Amino acid sequence: MARVFAIANQKGGVGKTTTCVNLAASLVATRRRVLLIDLDPQGNATTGSGVDKLNLEHSVYDVLIGECSLVDAMQFSEHGGYQLLPANRDLTAAEVALLNLPAKEKRLREALAPVRENYDYILIDCPPSLSMLTVNALAASDGVIIPMQCEYYALEGLTDLVNSIQRIANALNPELRIEGLLRTMYDPRSSLTNEVSAQLKEHFADRLYDTVIPRNVRLAEAPSHGMPALEYDKQSKGAQAYLALAGELSRRQRRATRATA
Ligand code: ADP
Ligand code: MG
Predict the structure, then answer these.
(1) What does UniProt give as the signal peptide span (predicted)?
(2) Quick check: 237 and 243 in contact, CB under 8 A?
């Protein structure tokens, strides 16, 4: 049964999409079966997976409004090795379209139910807002992975985000937990980075991933070639960092399974 993780942060440009695409590819490289869901109307995870967002027969939008099944809209990412549920600008209409549908917060959860057993991990790339789309992602997930940059205002935004997640969890999905905080675009030479890092460690303890993602130009270049960094430049620091993250995720998973066994 797949573990479902929403990759969320209401701030834009913190590395949500980069994390989705590269973590998905890294989990595939460690022989996991992965489905990546693009839930952002910008469709960056779709493009970054090598799928043309302007020529989609079906997208996640059709799945949410019940126009087609998830399997009909899914496409295989050649370079990533995972299945992708793509998105494009059509998804901006979802906010309004969902209002008139029953169980509007649980549309994605219901769509995922029949395919969960086919995957080890399902990752959901969220838009940079706490919209109905993000609510759908959180209602469908077991955990939230929060990518963040270690900058001055990061902690402030983080408190708001954690509170919002808690509220949504209480209302819709009591099982939902913060799976982990991921430090992205990390620069160990900056004293501010180290200060914020220490505070994160204090507040979030073992929910802060040990793995950090360095600022790496290969990670920024790879999407324009429609591939994860692992395919674009396997030896790059960025690709290797996401491989390490996939390893850390799996180790935590095994520990959690042992603890409940
Ligand atoms: P979000 O999905 O949160 O808006 P993105 O993943 O799209 O953020 O990242 C924002 C920008 O920063 C993109 O241009 C991306 O290529 C770049 N980027 C993300 N992570 C890194 C990194 N570790 N090193 C260098 N550039 C990065
Ligand atoms: Mg994004």
Answers:
(1) none
(2) no
Whether 261 has a pLDDT exceeding 80, the answer reads: no
Question: Is the domain 3-260 a CATH 3.40.50.300 member?
Answer: yes
Residue in the structure block whose two tokens are 């590819």: 25
pTM over 0.95: yes
Q: What is the DSSP string of 189-203?
A: T-HHHHHHHHHHHHH
Ligand 2 centroid from CA 42, angstroms: 7
Distance CA 122, CA 83 (A): 9
Residues in the chain: 261
Give me the residue spans of the domains in the chain. Answer: 3-260
Q: What is the mean pLDDT of residues 233-244?
A: 98
CA–CA separation, 171 vs 219, rounded Å?
Answer: 37
**Mutation probe of ligand 1 site: the residue of 17, 18, 225 with most atoms within 8 A of C-beta:** 18
- Pocket residues: Cβ below 6 A from ligand 1: 12-18, 44, 128, 184-185, 213, 215-216, 219-220, 223, 238
Provide the pLDDT confidence category of residue 260 given band limits of 50, 70 and 90.
confident
